[in-house]
Amino acid sequence: MFKNTISNLTRIRQVAEVLLRYGFEDVVTTTPLRRLVSQARRLNWQRADRQVFETTRWERVRLVIEELGPTFIKLAQAMSNRADLLPEALITEFEKLQSNVPPFDVVVARQIIEEELGQPISEVFSEFEDVTLGSASIGQVHKARLLTGEEVVVKVQRPGVRETVRSDLALLHELVRLTAGFLQKQGLSNPQDIVDAFERSMSKELDYTAEARSMEQFRKLYADYTSFYIPKPFRELSTARILVIEYVSGCKITDKAQLLAWGLSPETVAETGMDIYLTQIFEFGIFHADPHPGNVLVQPDGTVVLIDFGMVGRLTKQQKYAFAGVFIGMARQDARSMALNFRRLAITAEIPDMRAFESDLSQLIEDFATLDVKEMSMSDLADALQTIIYNYKLQVPGAVFLILRALVILEGIGKVLHPNFNTFEFVRPYGAKIIREQYSRQNLLSEAEYTGTQLLALLQTLPSDVRQIVRKISKGELRLKFELVGYNTLVRKADQLVSRTILALLSVGGLVFSGLSLLGRYSPDMPYHRGVPEITWWSLGATGFILLILMLLGMGRREKG
């Protein structure tokens, strides 16, 4: 434990120095991180070449993240989907981050597979390719063939990646603790919650069995679909560190030339892909959250294949209805309906001025209502919605931003394949379908049943709760707890003032005592220096020391000011 503490301290000092190198001295000098960086190093940064300031502050944030390594990069990539927390300019920079990592030695990969399976590779695979199909910060992928003849791909986790991520997460928690005040002043109200959510996400990503379960869930949901296919995971050959999946061939969905060579209609392929994705969101409430062209394949018969289920988003039934309601309200040019559905969608929505909120939504509707269908862009709409969410500090489910990001990606794919592709035209019928589902007899009965159950539970517990309160009042045991917020700074300043007043009184007392000591009559044993009693010198020395402390405190206050 002591070794880990020293390691974290060293790493935090390195982080502080990186922040200084990129001109974030305010982050260091206004937080407890300043204790870890000597004054000499700060002065060295101040005298250094300041070319770093030719870039924007947000660009420098990205440069810092890149230098700090893979875990920080993955956090920034995750945060690039949270427009409710970060300004658009910073999100744009985070979207530039790449976590491409060279593959690790295939000998090590083979060893990991054999350790996880508890048997030699030759007893599981008849063929195993040493050249990787792909490599990332968490693991890499090899193509292989089972003894039964089935072609598969094997995802192998990097050696030591769990320990690295665990160490970096501990470091992130400590950094947030040290810089929480600064981050909150920058508008990031819940940095600790963000790190906690990221930790949960990374824990899932480090467990390949979670991805296998997601794939199986999608396979069940789409078992009857002939135009959509999800590769089969081999659970019996998979563990937390390796994942064996059926190999599926095909071309990228954006390879228009290959689609035409196979006699497929690119327009039909684009429509099929969008239909599949909107079905995931508006019918099942569970969706593949990373549909970039490399993860969407098309087979010669036109079947669309999704791969890489490491990132999956989920919406509850109520969130699904609220999200659809936002789009439906916009289609009907009803700003009030949009505002109400935003509030239903938000986890916490403390909007101080609903009229201003509705006015901004009304302006958004007007901006898009005047556009021709061909001019409409999902990217522009997503940016506008995310700006409103950020400006009003609405805490909405992270899945909402994953959906908006995915729709933008799919729109880009669609425009490559379909000259008249318009995302809104695809979303519209799903919105109508959601309205019918929301107000269907079955759903209304379900809601009434849920409300009735909640009311019955309240009625069952209310009498006993009331009796308990009355009993405490009659016995004089009722206690009211008040929590005062925002007084810490005042208390701290009062404490500093009292401390300095005491020191000032001590110094005045010391000076008075020193003066009076000159008038005293002492025994012949009292030593004198330069005609002044030694007790006077001691008194003056103590008073000088107290005055020095007061001066240092005053200088420290001016530095902070």
From TrEMBL:
The chain crosses the membrane at residues 502-523, 535-555. It comes from the Bacteria. PROSITE patterns: PROTEIN_KINASE_DOM. It comes from Hymenobacter sedentarius. Gene3D superfamilies: Transferase(Phosphotransferase) domain 1. Keywords: Membrane, Transmembrane, Transmembrane helix, Ubiquinone. PANTHER family: CHAPERONE-ACTIVITY OF BC1 COMPLEX CABC1 -RELATED, PROTEIN ACTIVITY OF BC1 COMPLEX KINASE 7, CHLOROPLASTIC. GO terms for molecular function: ATP binding; protein kinase activity. It holds the Pfam family ABC1. This is Ubiquinone biosynthesis protein. Belongs to the protein kinase superfamily. ADCK protein kinase family. Residues 127-440 form the Protein kinase domain.
